[in-house]
Specification:
Blueprint lengths: L2 E3 L9 E5 L2 H18 L4 E4 L6 H12 L9 E4 L1 E3 L10 H8 L11 E2 L8 H14 L5 E4 L21 E4 L2 H7 L12 E4 L2 H5 L3 E6 L5 H9 L17 E6 L9
The protein binds 2-phosphoglycolic acid (PGA).
Length: 256
């Protein structure tokens, strides 16, 4: 059973849903996304990559195959991409999105946007990406993960709420965490294109999914400490419609 919870410590408008385990949390988020698409078939989704959302995407594919949802009028924008990896590189986020979701549903490939890691001028591509989001009418529903260091997308500690889509340097801890997906740490790109915190805060609704003990401290600091650039996810307190969907491990440091 999912347990909607309210927070007692630092004032934060975020809703918090605590699920028994990662499987239940992933299903909860999938249900919320499927319901949002069914309520607005031309929805603009903001999507995330990483280990955390894979089960959510598998659930969405399952619902599509069962005829519960269609994506033919949906547009999507991913949060970020490594600079230097083309979309055919197996560790690129474009490749991840194709293999985890897009290749298995009826979304129009022309309506799936991921920053281009192979862009010849990444800085101007980042500006163009912002314009593409605006041209699509803005993001209706943004899915987020959270890094161990509190990052959202590749907005590392030090990122301000005014930041827009741009080129960033990854912190050594993020590079190390992501090395598990590469043959060696030296192969992990050191820079990325990421939506900014300001870009993310303009989404109409935000869903943050976090599972596992490794995320518990970042979740606690985001929800129960005053917002600061030390923990980029803490800026989400400025948004009026944020839901954290957690498993019990990720919620384990919260005072609820
Ligand atoms: P993870 O990444 O899902 O692989 O833990 C989350 C993130 O860094 O945003």
């Amino acid at each position: 059973m999912n347990k909607p919870a309210s927070l007692s410590a630092h004032a934060h408008s975020a809703k918090v849903i605590v699920c028994r385990d990662a499987t239940a949390a992933s299903r909860t988020v999938a249900n919320m996304i499927v319901a949002a698409v069914n309520a607005k078939p031309s929805i603009v989704l903001g999507l995330a990559t990483g280990g955390t959302p894979t089960a959510t995407y598998a659930n969405i594919v399952e619902d599509f195959r069962a005829g519960k949802v269609q994506f033919k009028d949906v547009t999507s924008f991913n949060l970020d991409e490594y600079i230097g990896l083309s979309g055919t590189h197996p560790q690129s986020f474009r490749y991840f999105m194709q293999s985890e979701l897009f290749d298995h549903i009826d979304i129009d490939p022309n309506n799936t946007f991921v920053p281009e890691g192979g862009a010849s001028d990444p800085a101007s591509h980042a500006i163009q990406y912002e314009a593409q989001i605006a041209a699509a009418g803005g993001i209706d529903l943004q899915l987020l993960g959270i890094g161990h260091n509190g990052h959202i997308a590749f907005n590392e500690p030090g990122s301000l709420p005014s930041t827009r889509t741009r080129v960033v340097e990854l912190t050594p801890s993020t590079i190390e965490k992501n090395a598990r997906f590469f043959a060696s740490v030296d192969e992990v790109p050191k820079t990325a294109i990421t939506m900014g915190i300001g870009t993310i805060l303009e989404a109409k609704q935000i869903l943050l999914l976090a599972t596992g003990k490794g995320k518990a401290e970042a979740v606690r600091r985001s929800l129960q400490e005053a917002a600061s650039e030390e923990v980029p996810a803490s800026w989400l307190e400025q948004h009026p419609d944020v839901t954290f969907v957690l498993d019990e491990d990720a919620a384990s440091e919260l005072s609820l």
